[in-house]
Amino acid sequence: MADLSAFPITAKWPPKDASVLQLYSTPTPNGVKVSIMLEEIGLPYEPHFINIGADETWGPEYLALNPNGKIPAIIDPDGPGGKPLGLFESGAILLYLAEKTGKLLPSDPAKRYETIQWVMFQMGGLGPMFGQLGFFHKFAGKDFEDKRPRDRYAKESHRLIRVIESRLEGRDWIMGDEYTIADISMIGWVRNLIGFYGAGELVAYDELKRVPQWLERALARPAVQRGLDIPKRPA
Question: Which of 221, 184, 223, 187 is nearest to 91 (CA)?
Answer without folding.
Answer: 184
